[in-house]
């Protein structure tokens, strides 16, 4: 009997999102998206309806996504560097507002469609497989103003039209798709995850779960359309994963940790198993949440489940029922967690737990029995240039090395993993802070938090390291 190793066609690569790299935020007909209104730093969230309704672009305002790292114009140079590292795959997202600037337009914007055609052609030139996210945190602003974004059922139709448009256009270029990035983020950062802004008299939970239902139906419709249009399409869901550990063996702690994980699993249970789980129905009933579900919805959810489970993993989480223990919360991460005394944390307070990666992968595979795709993992850190203008990011290598080793362990456990795209292979704007100083890349970008710098690209120490990981198919880390 042979123990599993990294399969021959394992999809090594990197992952980015349109709004964190492209810039060119109003170029070639693109409409405004929710992210375009988010500043850098402490005042990033929350965002009020007034801002969305009254926003007009101002010359002297600085919003990180407006120029980002200018991938819109520099994608050729960047893709050439990814190819040099030996990437087999590259995960990127399409900006909905480049294709339908307002979200509800009758006709798509040809310049936007052409842009992604060019990017996919460039990837194809090097034999790099694109993995494309349909929605990565950017909702066209017009949909928020006019319809309340995902609160409104109509947005499901607009999304379906968008999905069909891009499937049709790129059917010969893209096989791997993901529907909603970190779909469970909707419950933690509702504006980021779903463009939700609450009115004073609204019941937040009711609104969030109704919006979640709409995204789940939209995701099923995308799976349906994707398979109809692209016969060999592989369409996945995407979860912000990371197991929650109980702080003690007190059954109350175990129950709480399980409930916390289920807040996230809820989405994937629907997307992968095709129905609302019993614990969710109970939660809705006990919290007076009543979902408007249309007659065909349940059948759609049942029939059009995902082909694979995409997930991001940065940290594990921990919880307790003891009020004293609960006081020690980790900083920085949007997911609630107490500090785990056995583990270190990143400069932003994100717990570092490579073994938790193996455990999480096992947990997901045990639950869904579908191929897993690790579509995000990495370390956000401050990089300092030394006198020779180089970055010796051995801390990043250490983080990735331990995680890749644990992924290898999960494979040996029998978990089926088809690929690994580390987050931000080139430095990009951070999603949670809007900063440039939180970097993940193998490639350094000369750009600071205020938008200054030449935007030039250079290799960090981790560049050659990752190259050799890919070359040796995970043997040599
Ligand atoms: C995930 C998002 C990404 C991303 C990453 C790192 O939640 O899908 O868009 O940026 O986390 O987070 P951050 O940029 O806040 O460090």
Description:
One of its GO terms (cellular component) is cytosol. It comes from Gracilibacillus salitolerans. One of its GO terms (molecular function) is 6-phospho-beta-glucosidase activity. This is 6-phospho-beta-glucosidase. Pfam families: Glyco_hydro_1. With 477 residues, this protein is an alpha/beta fold. It has one domain: TIM Barrel (Alpha-Beta Barrel). The protein is 40% helix and 13% strand. The protein is built from 17 helices and 14 strands. An eight-stranded parallel beta barrel has the order 1-2-3-4-5-7-11-12, surrounded by five helices. Strand 11 (372-376), helix 16 and strand 12 form a beta-alpha-beta unit. Helix 10 packs across helix 13. The two termini are 25 Å apart. 48% of the residues are buried. The chain binds 6-O-phosphono-beta-D-galactopyranose (BGP). 6-O-phosphono-beta-D-galactopyranose binds at residues 17, 20, 181-182, 240, 312, 376, 380, 423, 430-433, 438.
CATH topology description: TIM Barrel
Strand content: 5-15%
Largest sheet: 8 strands, parallel, barrel
Q: What coarse outline follows from CA principal-axis ratios?
A: globular
CATH class: Alpha Beta
The tally of structural domains comes to 1
Uncertain residue ranges: none
Q: How large is the radius of gyration?
A: 21 Å
Structural class: alpha/beta
